[in-house]
Amino acid sequence: MNVLESLDLSHNNLSGGIPEKLTMGCSSLRLLILSNNNLQGQIFYGKFSLFLLDELQLNDNHFSGSIPKVLSNCSSLYLIDFSNNNLSGRIPSSMGNISTLEEIIMPNNGLEGPIPIDFCQLLYLLILDLSNNNISGSLPACFNPSMINHVHLSKNRLEGSLTTQFCNSSSLITLDLSDNQLSGNIPNYINMLGKLSYLILKNNNLEGNIPIQLCELRRLCLIDLSQNHLSGHIPSCLDITTFDESYNVGPSLVRGSNASLVRGSNASLVPTKEPVHFTTKNVSYSYEGTLLTYMSGIDLSCNKLTGEIPYAIGQLSKIHVLNLSHNFLVGQIPSTFSILEQIESLDLSYNNLSGKIPPQLVQLHYLSTFRVAYNNLSGETPKRVGQFGTFDERCYEGNPLLCGEPMKSCRATSPPLIPESPTPGREDDGFIDMGVFYVSLIVSYIMMLITIAAVLYINPYWRRAWFYYVEMCFISSYYFIVDHLPKQFH
Protein backbone atom coordinates (compact mmCIF):
# COMPACT_ATOMS: atom_id res chain seq x y z
CA MET A 1 0.00 0.00 0.00
CA ASN A 2 2.97 2.31 0.39
CA VAL A 3 3.28 2.61 -3.41
CA LEU A 4 -0.45 3.29 -4.02
CA GLU A 5 -0.86 6.70 -5.69
CA SER A 6 -4.54 6.79 -6.66
CA LEU A 7 -7.59 5.51 -4.77
CA ASP A 8 -11.15 6.07 -6.00
CA LEU A 9 -13.94 4.45 -3.96
CA SER A 10 -16.66 6.95 -4.89
CA HIS A 11 -20.34 6.11 -5.49
CA ASN A 12 -20.51 3.13 -3.18
CA ASN A 13 -22.27 2.50 0.10
CA LEU A 14 -19.28 2.76 2.39
CA SER A 15 -19.93 3.75 5.99
CA GLY A 16 -17.93 4.48 9.11
CA GLY A 17 -14.90 6.75 9.18
CA ILE A 18 -11.65 6.96 7.26
CA PRO A 19 -9.44 4.20 8.74
CA GLU A 20 -6.10 5.16 10.23
CA LYS A 21 -4.47 2.40 8.19
CA LEU A 22 -5.32 4.40 5.10
CA THR A 23 -4.06 7.72 6.39
CA MET A 24 -0.84 6.15 7.70
CA GLY A 25 -0.17 3.27 5.33
CA CYS A 26 -0.58 5.02 1.98
CA SER A 27 2.11 7.64 2.21
CA SER A 28 2.54 7.77 -1.59
CA LEU A 29 -1.14 8.56 -2.22
CA ARG A 30 -1.72 11.55 -4.51
CA LEU A 31 -5.38 11.12 -5.45
CA LEU A 32 -8.03 10.20 -2.85
CA ILE A 33 -11.68 10.15 -3.89
CA LEU A 34 -14.25 8.88 -1.37
CA SER A 35 -17.22 10.97 -2.54
CA ASN A 36 -20.87 9.86 -2.62
CA ASN A 37 -20.80 7.37 0.23
CA ASN A 38 -22.16 7.25 3.79
CA LEU A 39 -18.89 7.98 5.54
CA GLN A 40 -19.10 9.90 8.79
CA GLY A 41 -17.11 11.14 11.74
CA GLN A 42 -14.24 13.60 11.65
CA ILE A 43 -11.90 13.91 8.70
CA PHE A 44 -8.42 12.56 9.46
CA TYR A 45 -8.96 12.51 13.22
CA GLY A 46 -5.99 10.15 13.84
CA LYS A 47 -2.46 9.96 12.60
CA PHE A 48 -1.82 11.33 9.14
CA SER A 49 0.95 10.82 6.60
CA LEU A 50 -0.73 11.66 3.27
CA PHE A 51 1.56 14.62 2.69
CA LEU A 52 1.86 13.97 -1.06
CA LEU A 53 -1.86 14.45 -1.75
CA ASP A 54 -2.65 16.46 -4.87
CA GLU A 55 -6.42 15.99 -4.95
CA LEU A 56 -8.82 15.24 -2.08
CA GLN A 57 -12.52 14.64 -2.72
CA LEU A 58 -14.71 13.74 0.24
CA ASN A 59 -17.90 15.39 -0.98
CA ASP A 60 -21.45 14.04 -0.48
CA ASN A 61 -20.90 12.16 2.76
CA HIS A 62 -21.79 12.77 6.41
CA PHE A 63 -18.49 14.01 7.75
CA SER A 64 -18.73 16.31 10.76
CA GLY A 65 -16.41 18.30 12.95
CA SER A 66 -13.92 20.87 11.75
CA ILE A 67 -11.57 20.99 8.77
CA PRO A 68 -8.30 19.31 9.80
CA LYS A 69 -5.39 21.73 10.10
CA VAL A 70 -3.01 18.94 9.11
CA LEU A 71 -3.95 19.57 5.48
CA SER A 72 -1.65 22.61 5.52
CA ASN A 73 1.24 20.13 5.46
CA CYS A 74 0.18 18.86 2.03
CA SER A 75 2.41 21.17 0.05
CA SER A 76 1.28 19.98 -3.40
CA LEU A 77 -2.50 19.89 -2.75
CA TYR A 78 -4.39 21.72 -5.50
CA LEU A 79 -8.01 20.49 -5.05
CA ILE A 80 -10.15 20.13 -1.93
CA ASP A 81 -13.81 19.14 -2.25
CA PHE A 82 -15.70 18.80 1.05
CA SER A 83 -19.09 19.83 -0.32
CA ASN A 84 -22.39 18.47 1.03
CA ASN A 85 -21.27 17.31 4.46
CA ASN A 86 -21.91 18.42 8.05
CA LEU A 87 -18.66 20.23 8.69
CA SER A 88 -18.64 23.06 11.23
CA GLY A 89 -16.27 25.50 12.84
CA ARG A 90 -13.99 28.03 11.21
CA ILE A 91 -11.95 27.63 8.07
CA PRO A 92 -8.34 27.19 9.22
CA SER A 93 -6.19 30.16 8.34
CA SER A 94 -3.39 27.68 7.68
CA MET A 95 -5.10 26.75 4.41
CA GLY A 96 -3.74 30.00 3.07
CA ASN A 97 -0.26 28.47 3.33
CA ILE A 98 -1.04 25.80 0.73
CA SER A 99 0.30 27.88 -2.13
CA THR A 100 -0.58 25.26 -4.76
CA LEU A 101 -4.34 25.37 -4.06
CA GLU A 102 -6.44 25.91 -7.18
CA GLU A 103 -9.88 24.73 -6.08
CA ILE A 104 -11.54 25.07 -2.67
CA ILE A 105 -15.03 23.55 -2.87
CA MET A 106 -16.94 23.38 0.42
CA PRO A 107 -20.58 24.40 -0.15
CA ASN A 108 -23.55 23.10 1.87
CA ASN A 109 -21.91 22.68 5.25
CA GLY A 110 -22.11 24.53 8.56
CA LEU A 111 -18.84 26.43 8.34
CA GLU A 112 -18.76 29.74 10.19
CA GLY A 113 -16.55 32.69 10.93
CA PRO A 114 -14.85 34.96 8.40
CA ILE A 115 -12.96 34.07 5.26
CA PRO A 116 -9.32 33.94 6.42
CA ILE A 117 -7.23 36.89 5.30
CA ASP A 118 -4.55 34.30 4.54
CA PHE A 119 -6.56 33.38 1.43
CA CYS A 120 -5.06 36.51 -0.15
CA GLN A 121 -1.85 34.48 -0.52
CA LEU A 122 -3.49 31.90 -2.79
CA LEU A 123 -2.19 33.31 -6.04
CA TYR A 124 -3.15 30.29 -8.17
CA LEU A 125 -6.70 29.91 -6.88
CA LEU A 126 -9.17 29.19 -9.69
CA ILE A 127 -12.36 28.20 -7.85
CA LEU A 128 -13.66 29.25 -4.43
CA ASP A 129 -17.03 27.80 -3.46
CA LEU A 130 -18.19 28.34 0.13
CA SER A 131 -21.86 28.85 -0.67
CA ASN A 132 -24.67 27.88 1.70
CA ASN A 133 -22.66 28.00 4.92
CA ASN A 134 -22.67 30.40 7.83
CA ILE A 135 -19.68 32.48 6.77
CA SER A 136 -19.77 35.99 8.28
CA GLY A 137 -17.75 39.17 8.31
CA SER A 138 -16.53 41.01 5.25
CA LEU A 139 -14.53 39.84 2.28
CA PRO A 140 -10.82 40.53 2.81
CA ALA A 141 -9.96 43.72 0.94
CA CYS A 142 -6.80 42.07 -0.36
CA PHE A 143 -8.66 39.16 -1.95
CA ASN A 144 -8.19 39.70 -5.68
CA PRO A 145 -6.34 36.70 -7.14
CA SER A 146 -5.55 37.38 -10.76
CA MET A 147 -6.18 33.82 -11.97
CA ILE A 148 -9.48 33.08 -10.23
CA ASN A 149 -12.34 32.03 -12.50
CA HIS A 150 -15.30 31.19 -10.28
CA VAL A 151 -16.37 32.63 -6.92
CA HIS A 152 -19.47 31.17 -5.23
CA LEU A 153 -20.18 32.71 -1.82
CA SER A 154 -23.99 32.83 -1.89
CA LYS A 155 -26.27 32.09 1.07
CA ASN A 156 -23.96 33.22 3.84
CA ARG A 157 -23.89 36.23 6.18
CA LEU A 158 -21.23 38.29 4.45
CA GLU A 159 -21.47 42.04 5.04
CA GLY A 160 -19.65 45.22 4.22
CA SER A 161 -19.10 46.72 0.78
CA LEU A 162 -17.13 45.75 -2.29
CA THR A 163 -14.15 48.09 -2.43
CA THR A 164 -10.99 46.54 -3.82
CA GLN A 165 -11.95 42.87 -3.77
CA PHE A 166 -11.60 41.25 -7.21
CA CYS A 167 -10.26 44.47 -8.75
CA ASN A 168 -7.33 42.53 -10.27
CA SER A 169 -9.29 39.35 -11.01
CA SER A 170 -9.42 39.89 -14.76
CA SER A 171 -10.00 36.17 -15.41
CA LEU A 172 -13.18 36.03 -13.32
CA ILE A 173 -16.06 34.31 -15.11
CA THR A 174 -18.56 33.72 -12.29
CA LEU A 175 -19.19 36.03 -9.33
CA ASP A 176 -22.04 34.82 -7.14
CA LEU A 177 -22.45 36.80 -3.90
CA SER A 178 -26.22 36.46 -3.67
CA ASP A 179 -28.25 36.07 -0.47
CA ASN A 180 -25.85 37.90 1.82
CA GLN A 181 -25.89 41.25 3.63
CA LEU A 182 -23.54 43.21 1.39
CA SER A 183 -24.08 46.98 1.22
CA GLY A 184 -22.78 49.97 -0.68
CA ASN A 185 -22.57 50.38 -4.44
CA ILE A 186 -21.68 48.00 -7.22
CA PRO A 187 -18.02 48.95 -7.81
CA ASN A 188 -17.15 51.02 -10.85
CA TYR A 189 -14.14 48.83 -11.57
CA ILE A 190 -16.54 46.09 -12.67
CA ASN A 191 -15.49 46.83 -16.26
CA MET A 192 -12.00 45.53 -15.43
CA LEU A 193 -13.47 42.01 -15.19
CA GLY A 194 -13.45 41.56 -18.94
CA LYS A 195 -14.30 37.84 -18.90
CA LEU A 196 -17.18 38.10 -16.44
CA SER A 197 -20.15 36.07 -17.69
CA TYR A 198 -22.28 35.42 -14.60
CA LEU A 199 -22.90 38.27 -12.16
CA ILE A 200 -25.27 37.18 -9.38
CA LEU A 201 -25.70 39.78 -6.60
CA LYS A 202 -29.37 39.29 -5.70
CA ASN A 203 -30.87 39.67 -2.22
CA ASN A 204 -28.33 42.01 -0.64
CA ASN A 205 -28.49 45.62 0.53
CA LEU A 206 -26.77 47.16 -2.48
CA GLU A 207 -27.80 50.70 -3.42
CA GLY A 208 -27.01 53.45 -5.89
CA ASN A 209 -27.24 53.27 -9.66
CA ILE A 210 -26.47 50.35 -11.92
CA PRO A 211 -22.97 51.33 -13.07
CA ILE A 212 -22.63 52.24 -16.73
CA GLN A 213 -19.36 50.29 -16.70
CA LEU A 214 -21.41 47.09 -16.95
CA CYS A 215 -21.94 47.95 -20.59
CA GLU A 216 -18.25 47.30 -21.26
CA LEU A 217 -18.62 43.64 -20.31
CA ARG A 218 -19.14 41.96 -23.66
CA ARG A 219 -19.32 38.42 -22.30
CA LEU A 220 -22.16 38.85 -19.80
CA CYS A 221 -24.65 36.00 -19.99
CA LEU A 222 -26.55 36.24 -16.70
CA ILE A 223 -26.98 39.33 -14.55
CA ASP A 224 -29.11 39.13 -11.41
CA LEU A 225 -29.29 42.28 -9.29
CA SER A 226 -32.77 41.62 -7.91
CA GLN A 227 -33.95 42.26 -4.33
CA ASN A 228 -31.64 45.16 -3.58
CA HIS A 229 -32.12 48.92 -3.22
CA LEU A 230 -30.78 49.99 -6.61
CA SER A 231 -32.19 53.20 -8.09
CA GLY A 232 -31.88 55.32 -11.21
CA HIS A 233 -32.40 54.27 -14.81
CA ILE A 234 -31.65 50.99 -16.54
CA PRO A 235 -28.56 51.47 -18.74
CA SER A 236 -29.63 51.25 -22.36
CA CYS A 237 -26.25 49.84 -23.38
CA LEU A 238 -26.47 46.54 -21.47
CA ASP A 239 -25.27 43.67 -23.63
CA ILE A 240 -26.20 40.06 -22.93
CA THR A 241 -25.02 37.05 -24.89
CA THR A 242 -24.64 33.31 -24.31
CA PHE A 243 -21.53 31.57 -23.05
CA ASP A 244 -21.14 29.38 -26.12
CA GLU A 245 -20.97 32.49 -28.29
CA SER A 246 -18.71 34.57 -26.06
CA TYR A 247 -16.21 31.71 -25.67
CA ASN A 248 -14.92 29.62 -28.52
CA VAL A 249 -15.08 26.21 -26.89
CA GLY A 250 -12.91 23.83 -28.87
CA PRO A 251 -11.22 20.52 -28.08
CA SER A 252 -10.87 20.30 -24.35
CA LEU A 253 -8.92 18.53 -21.68
CA VAL A 254 -10.79 17.71 -18.50
CA ARG A 255 -8.57 18.01 -15.49
CA GLY A 256 -9.59 16.25 -12.29
CA SER A 257 -12.23 13.60 -12.05
CA ASN A 258 -14.77 16.13 -10.78
CA ALA A 259 -14.54 17.89 -14.14
CA SER A 260 -14.82 21.27 -12.52
CA LEU A 261 -12.67 22.89 -15.18
CA VAL A 262 -12.48 22.45 -18.90
CA ARG A 263 -9.52 23.97 -20.68
CA GLY A 264 -10.39 24.91 -24.22
CA SER A 265 -8.04 25.38 -27.13
CA ASN A 266 -8.06 29.13 -26.44
CA ALA A 267 -7.19 28.52 -22.77
CA SER A 268 -10.64 29.74 -21.71
CA LEU A 269 -12.07 28.09 -18.63
CA VAL A 270 -15.61 26.78 -18.90
CA PRO A 271 -17.64 25.86 -15.79
CA THR A 272 -19.01 22.33 -15.91
CA LYS A 273 -19.83 21.48 -12.28
CA GLU A 274 -20.31 24.49 -10.03
CA PRO A 275 -24.00 25.51 -10.33
CA VAL A 276 -25.42 28.98 -10.80
CA HIS A 277 -28.90 29.64 -9.36
CA PHE A 278 -31.18 31.87 -11.41
CA THR A 279 -34.92 32.50 -11.22
CA THR A 280 -36.77 31.54 -14.39
CA LYS A 281 -40.55 31.38 -14.79
CA ASN A 282 -40.99 32.35 -11.12
CA VAL A 283 -38.92 29.35 -9.98
CA SER A 284 -35.26 29.28 -8.93
CA TYR A 285 -33.37 26.78 -11.04
CA SER A 286 -29.81 25.50 -10.74
CA TYR A 287 -27.88 25.74 -14.00
CA GLU A 288 -24.58 23.98 -14.53
CA GLY A 289 -22.49 22.35 -17.20
CA THR A 290 -23.62 22.48 -20.79
CA LEU A 291 -27.05 23.83 -19.84
CA LEU A 292 -25.42 26.88 -18.25
CA THR A 293 -23.49 27.68 -21.41
CA TYR A 294 -26.75 28.21 -23.31
CA MET A 295 -28.52 30.26 -20.62
CA SER A 296 -28.81 34.05 -20.64
CA GLY A 297 -31.01 36.51 -18.77
CA ILE A 298 -31.49 39.75 -16.85
CA ASP A 299 -33.21 40.03 -13.46
CA LEU A 300 -33.49 43.55 -12.02
CA SER A 301 -36.72 42.93 -10.10
CA CYS A 302 -37.56 44.22 -6.61
CA ASN A 303 -35.50 47.40 -6.72
CA LYS A 304 -36.27 51.12 -6.97
CA LEU A 305 -35.48 51.62 -10.65
CA THR A 306 -37.18 54.52 -12.45
CA GLY A 307 -37.50 55.86 -15.96
CA GLU A 308 -38.54 54.04 -19.11
CA ILE A 309 -37.54 50.60 -20.32
CA PRO A 310 -34.76 51.12 -22.88
CA TYR A 311 -35.78 50.17 -26.40
CA ALA A 312 -32.28 48.74 -26.88
CA ILE A 313 -33.12 45.82 -24.57
CA GLY A 314 -35.32 44.58 -27.38
CA GLN A 315 -32.18 44.05 -29.44
CA LEU A 316 -30.92 41.30 -27.08
CA SER A 317 -32.22 38.53 -29.31
CA LYS A 318 -30.42 35.73 -27.41
CA ILE A 319 -31.91 36.50 -24.00
CA HIS A 320 -34.08 33.82 -22.37
CA VAL A 321 -35.29 35.62 -19.22
CA LEU A 322 -36.15 39.27 -18.56
CA ASN A 323 -37.57 40.27 -15.17
CA LEU A 324 -38.09 43.98 -14.44
CA SER A 325 -41.01 43.56 -12.03
CA HIS A 326 -41.56 45.41 -8.74
CA ASN A 327 -39.91 48.69 -9.70
CA PHE A 328 -41.13 52.19 -10.57
CA LEU A 329 -40.71 52.03 -14.34
CA VAL A 330 -42.90 54.26 -16.52
CA GLY A 331 -43.66 54.67 -20.19
CA GLN A 332 -44.72 52.07 -22.70
CA ILE A 333 -43.65 48.50 -23.29
CA PRO A 334 -41.13 48.75 -26.15
CA SER A 335 -42.39 47.27 -29.39
CA THR A 336 -38.82 46.03 -29.96
CA PHE A 337 -39.54 43.27 -27.44
CA SER A 338 -40.99 41.35 -30.38
CA ILE A 339 -37.36 40.81 -31.49
CA LEU A 340 -36.59 38.78 -28.34
CA GLU A 341 -37.02 35.60 -30.32
CA GLN A 342 -35.51 33.31 -27.64
CA ILE A 343 -37.36 34.81 -24.65
CA GLU A 344 -39.08 32.27 -22.40
CA SER A 345 -40.01 34.40 -19.39
CA LEU A 346 -41.00 38.09 -19.48
CA ASP A 347 -42.15 39.75 -16.25
CA LEU A 348 -42.97 43.48 -16.20
CA SER A 349 -45.55 43.38 -13.40
CA TYR A 350 -45.88 45.85 -10.52
CA ASN A 351 -44.62 48.98 -12.27
CA ASN A 352 -46.24 52.15 -13.61
CA LEU A 353 -46.18 51.22 -17.29
CA SER A 354 -48.87 52.74 -19.50
CA GLY A 355 -50.13 52.53 -23.05
CA LYS A 356 -50.98 49.42 -25.00
CA ILE A 357 -49.38 46.00 -24.96
CA PRO A 358 -47.60 45.72 -28.33
CA PRO A 359 -49.60 43.26 -30.45
CA GLN A 360 -46.34 42.13 -32.08
CA LEU A 361 -45.49 40.17 -28.92
CA VAL A 362 -47.56 37.26 -30.25
CA GLN A 363 -44.51 36.53 -32.44
CA LEU A 364 -42.60 35.29 -29.34
CA HIS A 365 -43.04 31.57 -29.92
CA TYR A 366 -40.98 30.37 -26.92
CA LEU A 367 -42.65 32.61 -24.35
CA SER A 368 -44.12 30.48 -21.57
CA THR A 369 -44.33 33.06 -18.74
CA PHE A 370 -45.73 36.55 -19.35
CA ARG A 371 -46.79 38.99 -16.62
CA VAL A 372 -47.80 42.65 -16.91
CA ALA A 373 -50.12 42.71 -13.89
CA TYR A 374 -50.59 45.83 -11.76
CA ASN A 375 -49.57 48.58 -14.14
CA ASN A 376 -51.56 51.32 -15.88
CA LEU A 377 -51.89 49.57 -19.22
CA SER A 378 -54.89 50.20 -21.45
CA GLY A 379 -56.38 49.03 -24.70
CA GLU A 380 -56.86 45.50 -25.92
CA THR A 381 -54.80 42.49 -24.87
CA PRO A 382 -52.82 40.65 -27.58
CA LYS A 383 -54.72 38.12 -29.64
CA ARG A 384 -54.95 34.69 -28.07
CA VAL A 385 -52.78 32.95 -30.63
CA GLY A 386 -49.67 30.86 -30.10
CA GLN A 387 -48.24 31.11 -26.60
CA PHE A 388 -50.59 33.97 -25.70
CA GLY A 389 -53.46 31.52 -25.81
CA THR A 390 -52.06 29.94 -22.64
CA PHE A 391 -51.92 33.07 -20.44
CA ASP A 392 -54.80 33.52 -17.98
CA GLU A 393 -56.33 36.60 -16.35
CA ARG A 394 -53.72 36.70 -13.59
CA CYS A 395 -51.12 37.76 -16.14
CA TYR A 396 -53.05 40.99 -16.82
CA GLU A 397 -54.88 41.78 -13.56
CA GLY A 398 -54.54 45.17 -11.89
CA ASN A 399 -54.92 47.14 -15.14
CA PRO A 400 -58.46 48.63 -14.99
CA LEU A 401 -58.32 50.02 -18.53
CA LEU A 402 -57.17 46.75 -20.10
CA CYS A 403 -59.74 44.67 -21.93
CA GLY A 404 -60.02 41.71 -24.23
CA GLU A 405 -59.58 38.00 -23.62
CA PRO A 406 -59.03 36.64 -21.03
CA MET A 407 -60.16 39.92 -19.39
CA LYS A 408 -63.53 41.60 -19.77
CA SER A 409 -64.81 42.24 -23.26
CA CYS A 410 -63.80 45.54 -24.83
CA ARG A 411 -67.35 45.89 -26.25
CA ALA A 412 -68.83 45.65 -22.74
CA THR A 413 -66.33 48.17 -21.46
CA SER A 414 -67.17 50.94 -23.95
CA PRO A 415 -70.59 50.38 -25.65
CA PRO A 416 -71.30 52.39 -28.83
CA LEU A 417 -73.57 55.43 -28.45
CA ILE A 418 -76.44 54.35 -30.77
CA PRO A 419 -79.83 56.11 -30.24
CA GLU A 420 -82.62 53.79 -29.18
CA SER A 421 -85.15 53.15 -31.93
CA PRO A 422 -88.75 53.94 -30.87
CA THR A 423 -91.11 51.06 -30.17
CA PRO A 424 -94.07 50.88 -32.58
CA GLY A 425 -97.25 52.33 -31.05
CA ARG A 426 -95.34 54.07 -28.27
CA GLU A 427 -95.69 57.83 -27.89
CA ASP A 428 -92.61 59.98 -27.54
CA ASP A 429 -93.29 61.39 -24.10
CA GLY A 430 -90.11 63.38 -23.91
CA PHE A 431 -88.54 63.42 -20.47
CA ILE A 432 -91.87 62.71 -18.55
CA ASP A 433 -93.01 59.21 -17.79
CA MET A 434 -96.82 59.62 -17.95
CA GLY A 435 -97.53 56.51 -15.93
CA VAL A 436 -95.48 57.84 -13.04
CA PHE A 437 -97.15 61.25 -13.43
CA TYR A 438 -100.70 59.82 -13.07
CA VAL A 439 -99.79 57.72 -10.05
CA SER A 440 -98.19 60.75 -8.36
CA LEU A 441 -101.30 62.86 -9.05
CA ILE A 442 -103.69 60.30 -7.51
CA VAL A 443 -101.49 59.79 -4.45
CA SER A 444 -101.26 63.55 -3.91
CA TYR A 445 -105.05 63.95 -4.16
CA ILE A 446 -105.67 61.17 -1.63
CA MET A 447 -103.13 62.65 0.78
CA MET A 448 -104.85 66.04 0.54
CA LEU A 449 -108.25 64.52 1.41
CA ILE A 450 -106.80 62.64 4.38
CA THR A 451 -105.15 65.84 5.64
CA ILE A 452 -108.43 67.81 5.45
CA ALA A 453 -110.36 65.04 7.24
CA ALA A 454 -107.76 64.91 10.03
CA VAL A 455 -107.90 68.69 10.57
CA LEU A 456 -111.70 68.70 10.72
CA TYR A 457 -111.74 65.82 13.18
CA ILE A 458 -109.24 67.44 15.55
CA ASN A 459 -110.38 71.11 15.43
CA PRO A 460 -114.13 71.73 16.24
CA TYR A 461 -113.97 75.37 15.09
CA TRP A 462 -112.77 74.44 11.59
CA ARG A 463 -115.25 71.56 11.54
CA ARG A 464 -118.23 73.95 12.15
CA ALA A 465 -116.81 76.41 9.63
CA TRP A 466 -116.43 73.64 7.05
CA PHE A 467 -120.01 72.41 7.47
CA TYR A 468 -121.30 76.02 7.39
CA TYR A 469 -119.36 76.56 4.17
CA VAL A 470 -120.80 73.38 2.62
CA GLU A 471 -124.31 74.38 3.70
CA MET A 472 -123.98 77.85 2.13
CA CYS A 473 -122.69 76.25 -1.09
CA PHE A 474 -125.81 74.04 -1.27
CA ILE A 475 -128.20 76.99 -0.55
CA SER A 476 -126.51 79.19 -3.15
CA SER A 477 -126.66 76.46 -5.71
CA TYR A 478 -130.37 75.84 -4.97
CA TYR A 479 -131.42 79.51 -5.43
CA PHE A 480 -129.22 79.81 -8.52
CA ILE A 481 -130.99 76.89 -10.14
CA VAL A 482 -134.49 78.10 -9.10
CA ASP A 483 -133.93 81.61 -10.42
CA HIS A 484 -132.17 80.81 -13.72
CA LEU A 485 -133.33 77.41 -14.90
CA PRO A 486 -137.03 78.40 -15.80
CA LYS A 487 -135.78 81.32 -17.84
CA GLN A 488 -133.78 78.95 -20.12
CA PHE A 489 -137.05 77.33 -21.30
CA HIS A 490 -138.99 80.56 -22.10
TrEMBL record:
Pfam families (UniProt xref): LRR_1
GO cellular component: plasma membrane
Broad class of where this protein is predominantly found: membrane
Mode of membrane association: Single-pass type I membrane protein
InterPro entries: Leu-rich_rpt, Leu-rich_rpt_typical-subtyp, LRR_dom_sf, RLP_Defense_Trigger
Stored PROSITE patterns: LRR (PS51450)
Keywords per UniProt: Cell membrane, Glycoprotein, Leucine-rich repeat, Membrane, Receptor, Repeat, Signal, Transmembrane, Transmembrane helix
Cellular compartment(s): Cell membrane
Source superkingdom: Eukaryota
Segments passing through the bilayer: 436-458, 465-482
Similarity comment: family membership: Belongs to the RLP family.
Protein name per UniProt: Uncharacterized protein
Organism this protein belongs to: Rubroshorea leprosula
